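Reopening this one. Same input as before:
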Amino acid sequence: MTAIRARSYHHGDLRAELLQRAEATLRESGVDGLSLRQLARDTGVSHGAPTRHFRDKQALLDALAVAGFERLGADFENLTPTTSSTDTIHTMARTYLRFATENSALLALMFARRHSPVAGDVMSQAVDRAFAIPVTLIAEAQARGEIIPGDPRRIALTAVAALQGLATFLASGLVAPEAADEWLEDLVDHVMLGLQPR
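Same output, byte for byte:
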């Protein structure tokens, strides 16, 4: 173990370093390419060191998913709201699509319902925090009469599902990257049209 790795570990940064390296491996090799032993080698620590933070591979995957939801929520929190609900929703949709296309392997893990029961509460809280801003935005637009009544969380997640579909089309090449903005505008316009009160 190098002096830099040892110092990093003793300062309590090993967990963050393991997660960072695990996400890079996930991006390069998928879930099957991840192992605690290989992460230990990649980060220059003993093979048992990662188990101090993640008891097994499933715990590592759960932690990656939680970290992904936390990052997505932070991206939403960093948005500057506009005076128009439609403009804000367009900006939020663009933010989600960018996150989804730049982190496709992580996003697949985040929404794969293979999380361990132990992660239940932590995962649920991370999901709630991640989508708190979109849900609040929908509720505020409903209060102004701009969006149909209904459960704001369900409406927000329905819109996210549509965005996820577009992200999948982009990742598969069905939609060309240069057409992404045009498709995104159409998607948001259609979703907003469907949400307008009749």
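So the earlier flakiness isn't reproducible anymore. For the record, Residues 1-54 form a domain with the Arc Repressor Mutant, subunit A fold (CATH 1.10.10).
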